[in-house]
Design brief:
Layout lengths: L1 H37 L1 H22 L2 H11 L5 H30 L4 H12 L6 H7 L2 H25 L3 H24 L12 H6 L5 H24 L4 H28 L5 H37 L8 H25 L5 H66 L1
Length: about 425
């Protein structure tokens, strides 16, 4: 049985990795084209819009993007389509609330035309209404690729091609808007197709909002986590505007590294709960023990390679030195540990409240320190504040997992002795 499980996990990993390779490759290759065509300042503004959308997107995803995969994996297959449809209705209402507010924020924060700000607000927030987390929880990597990752990637490719003929930022964001909307539609169709029982849509506003109560721990964790990782871009834009392109590129490379770890996290999120309650604790213990070493290795590699990669992927227009790459390596190490321990270990243990608390603790430390260290040490100071906060989050989560596992062991031993 075990001999069959390992190849199955490897096949699942390889399938999820296809989405990663495609998405990361497209985004990396797009950077030098956008910078050379629109300029590094405009590229920095678009990166700022994307970071802002990640904050407002938390309102739209409302926890499903954070804990949804684990919840789907734990549900019987017949109940999953109804869960997705309920979430889609709720998230659609939230989208129409969040996108206009982001537009106002973009007018205040960025130096882009109002029409570009409007299109960017809609196009960058749209993916948070998608079905990626549902396909991950289903362990359906090819649906994730075909219905979500592929159309979004094609939007970037089309945008890069079009700006070679019409070098305007509005052309690029309009392409993203069309294809991101297509991804949401295709994702919804893919998630609901093949249902054994036809799900019923309840479009009433009050029930749609009441469903959000069950997502409170997930959205708190996602919201504070998003503030930790996306607010720094806004702080750099306010404190050290000239450093925005450098910080934005370092942030992009960091996010590509996080995405590179994505297939592993996606496999683990499905692998732990599918073992059943009796064996899940053993798998959680194994994952929690190995993850810190993986985070340390990944962080070291990012710190070393970022200066070389920044010159390569910006066509020499943007250079990042070790003063910025090293704290981003620390950020990566902390984030990888927190993602695996928080999403794949705490949720199956029923510790959603601890997940939310850990990210709140990180945000409480991170937000004031970003302004303090950013004022004295500029962009690297902001990055060090984020990195330290991520280590605090990861350390707290590891402590909760170890305490929970110890409690489970004592309970099992007590039951066995009766």
């Amino acid at each position: 049985m075990a001999s069959k499980a390992v190849p199955a996990l490897l096949r699942r990993f390889g399938s999820f990795a296809a989405s990663l390779v495609f998405s990361t490759g497209i985004n990396l290759l797009a950077i030098p084209f956008v910078i050379s065509t629109l300029g590094k300042e405009t590229w920095g503004e678009l990166a700022l819009a994307q970071a802002t959308a990640a904050i407002f997107g938390i309102i739209v995803a409302f926890g499903w993007g954070t804990v949804g995969a684990a919840l789907v994996a734990s549900l019987p297959a017949r109940e999953r389509p109804q869960m997705f449809l309920d979430s889609l209705v709720s998230r659609t209402y939230l989208f129409f609330i969040a996108a206009p507010v982001m537009f106002v924020a973009m007018l205040l924060l960025a130096r882009v035309e109002p029409l570009v700000a409007a299109l960017a607000s809609v196009s960058y927030v749209l993916p948070f209404a998608g079905a990626s987390w549902f396909f991950i929880g289903q362990a359906r990597p090819w649906r994730l690729f075909l219905f979500d990752v592929l159309p979004q990637g094609l939007g970037i490719v089309t945008g890069v091609i079009l700006i070679q003929f019409y070098p305007q930022p509005i052309v690029f964001v309009l392409s993203l808007l069309v294809f991101n909307l297509l991804a949401v539609v295709l994702g919804g169709v893919g998630a609901l197709s093949g249902a054994t029982q036809s799900p019923k849509a309840d479009f009433r506003f009050v029930p749609a909002m009441k469903r959000l109560r069950d997502q409170k721990h997930g959205v708190i964790a996602a919201g504070t986590g998003s503030l930790n990782s996306n607010l720094p871009m806004l702080v750099v834009n306010q404190l050290v505007t000239a450093a925005l392109p450098q910080y934005a590129l370092a942030d992009k490379l960091f996010r590509f590294a996080v995405a590179g770890f994505g297939p592993i996290l996606q496999v683990i999120q499905g692998w732990i709960p599918e073992a059943g309650p009796a064996r899940s604790s053993l798998r959680i213990r194994t994952v929690a023990r190995l993850t810190p070493a993986v985070g340390l290795l990944a962080g070291t590699l990012l710190a070393v390679l970022t200066p070389w990669a920044s010159a390569l992927f910006s066509g020499g227009a943007i250079t990042i030195d070790y003063s910025l790459s090293i704290p981003f390596g620390v950020i990566l190490g902390g984030v990888l540990v927190a993602q695996v321990v928080g999403l794949a270990c705490l949720i199956p243990l029923g510790k959603g409240a601890a997940l939310a608390k850990s990210t709140a603790i990180g945000a409480a430390f991170n937000i004031p320190m970003m302004f303090v260290l950013g004022t004295f040490f500029q962009a690297p100071g902001v990055a060090w504040a984020v990195g330290t906060a991520e280590l605090v989050v990861a350390g707290y989560q590891l402590a909760v997992v170890r305490s929970s596992l110890k409690h489970l062991t004592l309970v099992e031993e007590a039951d066995a002795s009766r």
